[in-house]
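Sample entry was shown:
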Amino acid sequence: MVEFAVWAPTPERVRLDVDGTRYDMDRSDDGWWRTEVSARPDARYGFVLDDDETVLPDPRSPRQPDGVHDRSQLWSPDPDAWTDGNWAGRSIEGTVIYELHVGTFTPQGTFDAAIEKLDYLVDLGIDFVELMPVNAFGGTHGWGYDGVLWYAVHEPYGGPDGLVRLIDACHRRGLGVLIDAVFNHLGPSGNYLPRFGPYLSSGSNPWGESINISGPDADEVRRYILDCALRWMRDFHADGLRLDAVHALVDTTAIHILEELSAETDALAEELGRPLSLIAESDLNDPRLITPRDRGGYGMTAQWDDDIHHAIHAAVSGERQGYYGDFGSLEALATTLKNGYFHAGTYSSFRHRRHGRPLDTSSIPATRLLAYTLTHDQVGNRAVGDRPSQNLTFGQLAVKAALVLTSPYTAMMFMGEEWGSSSPFQFFSSHPEPELARATAEGRKREFAEHGWDADEIPDPQDPETFLRSKLKWDEVDDGEHGRLRRTYQQLIALRNHHPEFADPWLDHLRIDYDEARRWLVMHRGAFAVACNLGAEPVDVPVTGELVLAWDEPTIGAKGTQLPGHSFAIVKSPAQATSD
């Protein structure tokens, strides 16, 4: 016998459909409906609400073999499928994370195909794989942020069994796994949750209606979110979550849902005997996210830091549009690297108001902030999805990598970044509903046309070619300058891991020198100096020592080093080099 249960306070009647046979369910005072029936371990089932004869999927569906509009299927992880019993786990702090989209990471776009590339990631020096959302969403391919059945795994990737195989394979190789989870909105295709209960609030955010986490009947909605988050880490052995756009979680209760999730994650980590990490994506520059709970914070492990990305990208590329307007100078870059945030209660010209709050660098280590030169957002949300590698020299890409990978922050990369992939990462979708498909395509063109782009240049998200163009070209990995850049990334990561100076997480120990006019910047990490020339012409930098690593050969003299244009050099001070 199998007990079926669903929280559905809205309908007056709920029936269970199991393989075509229907059963009445009993309602309790808390809005839950339950019944116990005989069912096969892989039975297809769903719920029929009131007089509508449509069978709807389970809001907590463990599997959707035929898509988000069809019946759910019973599924539970097979204990014998796991071979990672010796995996002790690790915190993400100070590591190198590799963000990837399963559908475009390989030609096949599946979990099993991704397994074939794991040895490559280990050889590169990666510590964690971060999967863009793998929850069930409408259509066959998309970014995954329009999920509607958060408990189920996207079937075209390989479903829940495929995800088990991937995570197990990662752990066997010493790789941790993070899963990108979206709890701030629901997608437009297949969202039946409002028919069951008050999952949505009266508010909205840029992606749709907001989730009801602090209004009437919010307790069960919060539980829905918390149980889903914990399920990824408990049932699928994930080592943590990246939480999408947490600033869109409008919570007016005394205990914010992020604080609640942090506490329950810590409890689960203690139960499992291995570390679990929560990474917040937030544009608030609010250190309360990463401040311990016993000091009044939410207790998250880390957060994405877009200010670091903006400061590096604007300084290297020269772009100044939109939110890059406050960045671009070496002063802004040095300030951001030294303080974690650039906007810390300071005026933002992009927002036309003050923004952010200072980070207490004496008590919060830099490893609680993620530094990166690239993310899926910073590429895919550009009009044509162009990567920096399509606009910058390989030397400029190498400078950006050096700044991130030798910084005190936890480092993150986006798939293909390490070899300067020529593939764009464009916004793509496959909504099966014609009207929704048309609205998505037209909305994308309209949005960027308003910012001066020719509408004809904007890729159609629904065109399958947009998806196919975004797949990585693995034959580039060792080809010419692509291969040279990849080897540089590998060496930077090895340097980061081998020398304790690069593991020092305290920003108070970091010293940065720069010359605005001559476009050079030096980041001092103990005995090491990371000298970067962001200009196109050779420049003399007042550091010297033993050459450790460089992009293009520098000329090292007794009192200084000449760097070629768009290059970096890492040198070790003579005294330290001699003592070694």
